[in-house]
Amino acid sequence: MEREKKPAASSVSDVGAWAMNIISSVGIIMANKQLMSANGYAFTFATSLTGFHFAVTALVGFISNSTGYTSSMHVPLWELLWFSIVANTSIAAMNFSLMLNSVGFYQISKLSMIPVVCVMEWILHNKHYSKEVKCAVVVVVIGVGVCTVTDVKINVKGFLCASVAVFATSLQQISIGSLQKKYSIGAFELLSKTAPIQAVSLLVFGPFIDYYLSANLIFDYVKTITSGAIVFILVSCSLAVFCNISQYLCIGRFSAVSFQVLGHMKTVCVLSLGWLLFDSELSFKNIMGMLVAVAGMVIYSWAVEADKSSTKITTTHTKHSLTEEELTLLKEGLENIPIKDYELGESK
After folding, report:
1. Model's pTM, two decimal places?
2. Which pLDDT value is given to residue 60?
3. DSSP state letters, 60-112
4. What angle do CA 19, 24, 29 make, to 5 degrees?
5. Are 194 and 58 in contact (CB under 8 A)?
């Protein structure tokens, strides 16, 4: 049986969603690096900056709904609050994990999200994965691990923060897809509902979290802020809108696992651009790790498409097969039809 081809428009749309996510994510990392580094503008308030990101995203969503470009779909408030708590816990825990752990352990915790998402989807949605997909995931994890993990130091507080961050981030990404399917709501419509709640909570609690992390008050920084810092904050917020939208799009169309696996392409891009733009060291180990990671992503894409094709064939075969009960009912129905109805040329 021939494999059903995906419409060209849909393919272009899928590629566009991934491209938007990779470009905006890499761009925002580069902008934040300049904004937060000591050699840049020393803006060390990551949680508050994330609050700015969601505030701008909420504003864009409000304008879009007001102009009729998008419609406001109903989602129960308690689900929006629950999702926002999980998402904000993910952000705060990630920041604490980065502060308390070595860079190596922080990278390992991020890599562990792939198997954690797989297990959580299996538990929550009874989702199963083929051997090819599992092998591809292992290859990606090994490749990214080789090119990013350096020293690994573990402490109790750091381990607890990393565990909370991994669990909350995995649950958040799974919830994005499940909420879209549950309420038949688009990616941007869902984002426009969750962004205001996240923005308000992060802007209220963000300064306190940032003070604990950096021992600096954002209000003191604002008094001496430069025009260059303002420009980079605006650039970061603008890119965050595209990054947030594309994340919801990608997870809604594919899965949280696919988003994690193919999302590591951003790690490869960040390492490459860091070497090109910021004179970061790029060793032979980094290069080999990136090549292995890219190979794993290609294998994963192939394995997922093969799974989809196999599922379609199985579904089609099932649809065109009659059960024994259906055959019995059909036989009984035919027996109840008068013989004369079958006689050639005789009308009723």
Report:
1. 0.71
2. 92
3. HHHHHHHTTSS------HHHHHHHHHHHHHHHHHHHHHHHHS-HHHHHHHHHT
4. 130
5. no
